[in-house]
Amino acid sequence: MESEGRDHAQLVRALVEQVQSIGLASERIGHSFSARQQLHPTDLRALIHIFQADQRGQPLSPLGLARLLDLSPAAVTYAADRLVASGHVRREPDPCDRRKTLLRFAPHGREVAGKFFGPLGQAHAGALASFSPAELEIALRVLAAVLDALARFDESLSADQPESISSTETA
To answer: Whole-angstrom Cα distance, residue 137 to residue 133?
Structure first.
């Protein structure tokens, strides 16, 4: 993608279009994984949040997952039940409060996700191999700014709602 001859507004528009295309491609890939694993779309979103939380070393409680998904705790319980039954997730006691549970990515979930998404990770690595660390740092700054804008926009949408939809949403 050549930037010669394009002004700031044109470059911003081109970046926005690329981000939108990434979102759509990611959604298609997610649907493919869901179909192969016979997962409900809500279950896939939950699985991604559970995986990311595990990767950060901060496993999610069902209530934390409900907040991230903007769903009722009951709807998240159904989704978690389906993910546990399919072997993608396991429940374990919270070491800080044994009355509570945490949702963790299960070995079966890691295995099937690794088989499916491993080649995608390799494709990403190959696509980015020719970029210098300085270029990758700039790309990270751009993506972080876009994600921040998305988060702020999402928060403004939530603030505009008189009542959270999580009290009526089901999985």
So the answer is: 6
CA 151 – CA 149 distance, rounded (Å): 5
The answer to whether the beta carbons of residues 79 and 40 sit under 8 Å apart is yes
pLDDT digits (tens, 9 = 90+) for 47-103: 999 999 999 999 999 999 999 999 999 999 999 999 999 999 999 999 999 899 999
One-letter amino acid identity for 63? Answer: L
What is this structure's pTM?
0.80
User: What does each C-alpha distance from 121 to 50, 74, 125, 126 come to in angstroms?
Assistant: 19, 34, 6, 9
Rounded to the nearest 10°, the torsion over CA 136, 140, 142, 148 is 180
Contact 73, 62 (CB under 8 A): yes
